[in-house]
Target: Stage III sporulation protein AF
Amino acid sequence: MMAEITEWVKSIVMVVLFATFLEFLLPASSMQRFVRVIMGLFIMLSILNPLIHVLHSQLLPEPVAVFGNPAAKSTEVERISREAAKGRSQLTHEMYRKDLANQIRALVMAIEGIAEVRVAVDTNDQEGSKNIGAIKHITLYVQPGVADTGRKIQKITINTPTAQNRSELSAVTRDKIRRVITELYTIREDQLTIQRLN
Model:
């Protein structure tokens, strides 16, 4: 106990000597007040250090021993982290497919003669594959016509068969869509299916 008190007093004396020496080195200016305040804080900290140590050891409880098999707990943690990583990966792939479908829809809608497009994208989701996220197949459901801008009210005709009013998707429009998608996404033509939206 006496050795601890001796060390405590020595540390206080060293801090006070350092503060005094630093005060002599500084010129008489407004900065000297700031240095005195900081050195005063250091002196107070060195005085209160044993008290802080005692309070710390009495207020904080002893570490509780962990019961059970640590190897079993680590395997459980690894299993949970693998499941979380798998779920995060699935969510990422789903968001990627949705963004890709929205991008393809916007491209096709920009082509003249297209009223509506629905897109289904199939990508490579194989974990560990070097081409993960690559496009396997794109299916487009296209409705030909003029896109509805919401500005004009279209004429409605009653008692006419709907099959006669449906315009078919022209070969020129199909070729335009096929060229835009295959060139932009560097896919083969057999990876793209274009169907009419019913």
